Amino acid sequence: MNNDKLAKLQAQVRIGGKGTPRRKVKKATKSTGGDDRKLQGALQKLGVQPLGGIEEVNFFKDDGKVVHFANPRVQAAINSNTFAIHGRCVEKELTELVPGILSQLGPDSLASLRKLAEAYQSAQGGAAGGEDDDEIPDLVESFDKAEVEDKAEEKAEGEAKA
Questions:
Q1: Out of 49, 104, 108, 145, which residue is the most buried by the measure of CB atoms under 10 Å away?
Q2: Is 44 a residue whose pLDDT tops 70?
Q3: 58 and 84: one domain?
Q4: Which has more pLDDT, 29 or 32?
Q5: Cα angle value 134/136/141 (rounded, 5°)
Q6: Mean pLDDT of the 125-149 span
Q7: Which of 37, 69, 94 is the last residue of a domain?
Q8: What integer pLDDT is reported at residue 49 of this predicted model?
Q9: Quick check: 103 pLDDT over 90?
Q10: Is 110 within the bounds of a domain?
Q11: What's the chain look like in SS3?
């Protein structure tokens, strides 16, 4: 390699003065602790108190999805009508949580659940209805009448063979 090219590369890489370590990229450290401290300070001004015994929190969206918090940390200031919920959340479909959340549903959520159920039934009915028509014919006559006719056909075939 050429010494001139090597000297140019070294001049580009050095960040500090002589004797400092050479790095190509200066990485900026991001601290998220400052935001959390600001949030906690604002909540303390409101006088929030921790609420215990809450195992899960669900937020119902208009599009039929649910924001689900399992084992959240909940703080509340009743006088200012402020609630803070901390923890990991997962966005799930309403159908995934239905058995466990029926007691939590309000009138709006029940209406959306009905719409979802109707859409599901129509989708299942349309797909299953087409398949069922191909495999199983509709019942036209009673079973008793068909059985009598089958026995008469078997008797006629037996006489024809003899």
A1: 104
A2: yes
A3: yes
A4: 29
A5: 130
A6: 62
A7: 94
A8: 92
A9: no
A10: yes
A11: CCHHHHHHHHHHHCCCCCCCCCCCCCCCCCCCHHHHHHHHHHHHHHCCEEECCCCEEEEECCCCEEEEEECCEEEEEHHHCEEEEECCEEEEEHHHHHHHHHHHCCHHHHHHHHHHHHHHHHHHHHHHHHHHHHHCCCCCCCHHHHHHHHHHHHHHHHHHHC
